[in-house]
Specification:
By secondary structure, the chain is an alpha+beta fold. The chain has a single domain, classed as Aminopeptidase, CATH 3.40.630.30. The chain is built from four helices and four strands, in the order E-H-E-E-E-H-H-H. It has a four-stranded antiparallel sheet, sandwiched between helices. Strand 2 and strand 3 form a beta hairpin.
């Protein structure tokens, strides 16, 4: 049986300061400067997105491309930008209404 990881996307708090610093050091970069959003996989922070400039710090020793994309998607939603799926529904309003009724 395959294990499905638990993924949590959340805003960083002041309690995450050392975690963000350690993640940046692991990624050989400067710490994120602005407010950040974190991606935790099974309770371990694997990536962080700086909400002020879009830069990313991620664990280079594990696969993080998918969680980084999840962070970017969530950040776009917080900014109010429609995602591709939402844009597709806006182009085809009748289909969108039909899918809501189904």
């Amino acid at each position: 049986m395959m294990h499905s990881p638990t993924i949590v996307i959340r805003l960083a708090t002041t309690a995450d300061r050392s975690t963000l610093s350690n993640l940046a050091e692991l990624d050989s970069r400067h710490p994120l400067a602005g407010p950040a959003m974190l991606a935790e996989v099974d309770g371990t922070v694997r990536a962080a997105l700086d909400l002020s400039d879009g830069s990313v710090a991620a664990d280079p020793f594990v696969r993080t491309a998918e969680v980084v994309e999840m962070l970017r998607l969530r950040a776009r939603r917080l900014e109010g930008q429609p995602t591709r799926r939402v844009r597709a529904r806006l182009r085809h309003p009748r289909r969108a209404l039909a899918s809501l009724r189904a």
